[in-house]
Amino acid sequence: MIDLQRDGDVFVLRLDAGENRFAPDFLGAFEDALGTVEESEGPAALVTVGTGKFYSNGLDLEWLGANPDRLEDYLRRVNGLYARLLSLPAPTVAAVNGHAFAGGGMLVLAHDFAVMRTDRGYFCLPEVDLGMSFTPGMGALIQARLPKASAHEAMITGRRYTAEQARRAGIVQHTAEQERVLPVATELAASLAAKDGAIVGKIRRDMYGPALEALRGPVLA
Amino acid sequence: MIDLQRDGDVFVLRLDAGENRFAPDFLGAFEDALGTVEESEGPAALVTVGTGKFYSNGLDLEWLGANPDRLEDYLRRVNGLYARLLSLPAPTVAAVNGHAFAGGGMLVLAHDFAVMRTDRGYFCLPEVDLGMSFTPGMGALIQARLPKASAHEAMITGRRYTAEQARRAGIVQHTAEQERVLPVATELAASLAAKDGAIVGKIRRDMYGPALEALRGPVLA
Amino acid sequence: MIDLQRDGDVFVLRLDAGENRFAPDFLGAFEDALGTVEESEGPAALVTVGTGKFYSNGLDLEWLGANPDRLEDYLRRVNGLYARLLSLPAPTVAAVNGHAFAGGGMLVLAHDFAVMRTDRGYFCLPEVDLGMSFTPGMGALIQARLPKASAHEAMITGRRYTAEQARRAGIVQHTAEQERVLPVATELAASLAAKDGAIVGKIRRDMYGPALEALRGPVLA
User: Fold this and answer.
1) DSSP-derived secondary structure for A56-89
2) Among A69, B52, B156, B218, which residue has the fewest nearby CB atoms (within 10 Å)?
3) What are the structural domains, with CATH classification, of chain A?
4) Of C128, C151, C153, the CB nearest to A199
């Protein structure tokens, strides 16, 4: 479901569960993988990548439908994953091989940089069209990472962005053809892996202090 | 002075009082029109537009000069209008048919999107040249909506932006020839009118919580 | 070491101490020069410029190495210089004639606008590669002035930006050939000198209230 491999100094975390929705066991495997990266010694950077046409479609709405009483704990756990990635003591790059929707789009934004596939796949925050709003932490994450106009358009209209549109909107930093997404992301990560992870983590945690506080705070506003 | 018409799902609020300065009765009519939109049922979006060469020139300095003791209440009411527009449970588009100066420029920024006329008219925050500063709420609104460099330039230098300059500075999102400003704004609004207004309003209020708090707070810092 | 000349309405503050690192006497001379500008009467704007290939390389690490017990006071003083420049009751322009590294880069960001030399010189925040993080005030200054993506890249990767790269990243607003850097900066400053300094100062202090508070607060987080 989740596979963590080391390629030189770069950890490649492959999300391999179809739409890569955040089922509880998926979250558990993701958390374990981040733990491995956090505890590693020496130069390290992290790349995450999905499989097929999905990077991640975010919340597991089917599981939530069957477990409505666990909504609050579940959202806390998802927000906690974003916070942990944003706090990671290593550079991080998302290789956006396909759709990054809703919580999957926010997962992209919790990385330092993102490379997005050009021929297919959208970045989209469709919450407005699903009758959902954002937890305070999710809103803080999006607004801390996106240009104001892009956060506004993405959150208020639920627009679907192609890779090139996402790059122009400041959602991702790079685009690549399908077979180049992971290599480009890995090269970028490798170029940053020698940085002192403790310092990278501290600078990033300082930069995003308010967003991290919101991500660790109440999920129901 | 203010005319509210419904065109399919789109409410078109026409400001028709010359320079469209915020005289008390103008504000009253504007507030009433927003009330009508707020209480409407079914799909809805709002377009505002001025007449002739003015979108709005903002504060009614002549009235203020004659009523200096009412400055604080007056500024609270203007800030309240911005807050109400920013909180509106429906998508909003400003059709900037002409000059949008000072408080009229901030009115533009309280909409989701803006379409600006290309052949004439400026967006300008001339406060610095009028010996005025901004209320905390006005400053918060401008800084919450504009890219940092644009907020800085607009507020510190009082630069006049043409439509194309305003688009490049991230002040408006679209430009159009005179006769196309209102149609383009209306088409954009119509494309968003089917969104659940309650959700649009909640997402927007969550996004701009600190700006809304400032707009509803003290006007004299 | 520091030379302040008046050219019409424009004060030109030349930093002339090699790499223009912030030695205590350099800071004292800089503070005195700002005092002269603050106390001047009539139209005024400030241009700062370095000499040779350096605008400023920031903290005087050699002096700090010899005076480790004075770290906290020293950082407070540097942050205080940024705060004073950001509060200055006059428009300010940095003529970035050469390298602006670390604290020298932040000095650039404390000005209203910056003109950067095209043929050589980098803007760089190399803290991550020096094993350093940013004081809360420094982080707040950088994040208050740079687009989010640029602040992230500059702080997390320590990238060196040429003038053109810095302009595209929103770090500087203008670029010019070597011999034109100071003239362009001076012309820009002169065009703004007639603005009421008290108003410029108030608007800027209002805009950057949280950053100023951080710059005047604790340096060790």
Assistant:
1) E-EE-HHHHHH-GGGHHHHHHHHHHHHHHHHH-S
2) A69
3) 2-215 (3.90.226.10)
4) C128
